[in-house]
Amino acid sequence: MIFKKDNLWFGLTMGMIAPIVGILIFKLFKFSIFSIKETFQFLLLEPGFRTLSAALSISLLLNAGLFTIYINTYRDETAKGIFFTTLFYGLIILSIKTFL
């Protein structure tokens, strides 16, 4: 099974995909009446990017869940990859909130 892998690159890939899925779930609940294009236009054009940074912050919860699963099943290399991408996304969110 694919989720039994213990590979750094697999963790990096999962860590990059999970927040994107989280943003789509955020869109489904928060902006369900708008199209995907309209939602992303609003997220990118909103002054202060408040909704975008909130969506990204919430989407990192999926990474936290994945990290917990992989660390508890002793797949440390995959968990390490997920952790690195979480830090990467976290730095992006911090810079959006601080500088924009």
Q: What coarse outline follows from CA principal-axis ratios?
A: elongated
Tell me the structural class: mainly alpha
Q: Share of helix among residues? A: over 70%
Beta-strand content estimate = under 5%
- Indicate the radius of gyration in whole angstroms: 15 Å
Low-confidence stretches: none
**What is the string of helix and strand elements?**
HHHH
- Residue-averaged pLDDT: 90
How would you characterize the largest beta sheet? none
Task: Name the descriptors.
single chain, 100 residues, 80% helix, mainly alpha
What would you note in describing this structure?
Helices cover 80% and strands 0% of the residues. It contains four helices and no strands. It has helices at residues 8-30, 36-45, 50-72, 76-99. Helix 1 (8-30) packs across helix 3 (50-72), helix 1 packs across helix 4 and helix 3 runs antiparallel to helix 4 (76-99). It is elongated.
